[in-house]
Amino acid sequence: MKTEEKGYIIGVDTGGTFTDVVLLKPNGEFVTGKAPTTPADFSMGVTNAVTEVARQMGLPLEELLTRMAYFKHGTTVATNALITRSGAKVGLITTRGFEDTTLIMRAIGRVDGLPEEEVRHVTHVTKPEPLVPRRLIRGVSERIDYQGQVLIPLSQPELDSAVAELVEKQGCNALAVSLLHAWANPAHENAIRERLSQLYPNGKVFLSFGSDLAQVAGEYARANTAIVNAFVGPTVQRYLNDLEKKLRGGGLHGPFLVMQGNGGLTSREQSIPITNLQSGPAGGMIASAYMSGLLGHGKVLTTDMGGTSFDVSLIADGFWKYAEEPIFDRFRILQPIAEIESIGAGGGTIARVDEVTGRLLVGPQSAGAHPGPVCYDEGGEEVTVTDVDVLLGYIDPNYFLGGRKRLNKAKAEKAVREKIAGRLKLEVMEAAAGIYEIINNKMSDLIRRQIVKSGYLPEDFVLYAFGGAGPVHAVEFARELGIREIYIFPTSAVFSAFGAAMADVIHSRVMTYHAVMPIDPNVINERLQAVEQELLALMASEDFTREQVTLRRFVSMRFRRQTYGVELALPWDRLDAGRVNELARLFEAKYEDLYGKGAGFSQAGIEINTLRVDAVGQVPKPLLTRDTGRGGDGGQARKGSRSAFFDQRFVETAIYDYTRLGPGAVVTGPAIIEAPLTTIVVPPGYRGTVDSYHNIIITES
Fold first, then answer.
1. pTM summary value
2. What is the mean pLDDT of residues 69-73?
């Protein structure tokens, strides 16, 4: 057997519409695949997508699995369970007197997670239906203060009574435990864990503890974290266990690793269900960070337009930020999850005419994988962005998914005429062009908001466009932002799966640490050492030696009386008095870099509010290979022409075969470049240049 025929690494990303696969070979070559997501049984979509890769390689599925060194999987199972409210029946145990915390929420809870269109309407600005209703919440007597001192011991009789009511009487199959100050001292939560383990030793009840998940002050978000983990936990565990069992039975011998929202992998055994949230988009972040290092880009804007959503994030100097309190299904949680903003703007996003105002609206609702867009001819009746892309000539209905799926253009045109154009008294193509413009403007607005609040300028960034629909729309949503370069990769259509394949094992700990500068270096050093020892023990359970683990340390700092901090990477493993002073200077410099010269106010004082430590265990992976050949002017890749819509009219447009474009090839717009899994639109006034990694770089002519 040749060396390149074994030791494969496979990355799988289950999205809302498609399940994507990237297989990496040891020599740096890769194979991509895509299959529809199957919400009724997500494992079927995974199997179908991997089978498609096996077909391309001329191998039976079983043979491919036996040659696998690593199987890495990002999944939307947790997100799907949360959105569809199909999780466990959860009971909450909390400190007596705080039973209503999750129901009262915060004032901002009325708008958390709502799209802008709904925030403007008073009727939509209401609290979400709680995951745990009041009848399933029990308080127990106990109190630990914010310094970790026990004031009132835990009442064992009250605990036993609460558990009996929730499990035996109410039928809860999952319990979330979140006590007021367990972040400072988890002694009482640990005592509850011990008691519950005695009562339910065989995993009959799924257990979730706030102090395990977030050592951060804030009882509302921490309780939400414990609840969400309990709600999705049984579903996620069952799915991952069943999928691994299927893969093992099919011939997989290598490690089965699970993507997390922090941008790293973990073994199935160590996987915490809530960390699966955002794991798909996190794969795109990993891939973007890898490519930015490879290409030498300091500031990168990542844009992922798939079938259901449009995800935006920023990478600066190879790192992404973690969200302070990420929001999922309108609930704030405390987890180290990559800061990614999303809106309902994908290929499956539905366009409609508002019954009351008569306005054309696009999103956030999606047709999803089933029934999908009208042109899929699988029962979809609502007009979507993909239908419009077909009508405007950007997507060839006979070459969707490389010709594996034929699209029904006539049915899409009929739907636009009846549901949109007729109601607005427009021609079909006018209506289609209006939908295309609205969706692009919505994406531009999200990008602008993300960049502005970060303190940067759009022109400082290179834009990476990925997701199956991203390259169709990239130039249009970047046009008004002054972004000079747009990169589209050979793996753009399956970029999150590529990121999963390139990911390392990462475990993160975030904790509240409040101290006013200048701090005592010995105190913070002790805290860092304790967290590091915990993480190293966890990495040892994943079979990493100390020498194989890299520790990354971060502090979040702010001027006193501010609400949010600025995160800094610590350049040292330990602090001393001199480094404490230097840390203050680094913070002020970072703050003014973000918000402008003179924006800082050191007279107010500086404080640390949060610590974060990441433990990274590198997983072997191949390097992408460069192509040293030359592709000339791209003329040899031209495969014909068709009429496409640009500048308010249809223009005869050259069509190119992406697989025949070599390094150095230049394609001048208007042009459309067709790849097996996506389509790249180059409008008039722009050109696409192929580099040595077969990336297409779109710039103004």
1. 0.88
2. 94
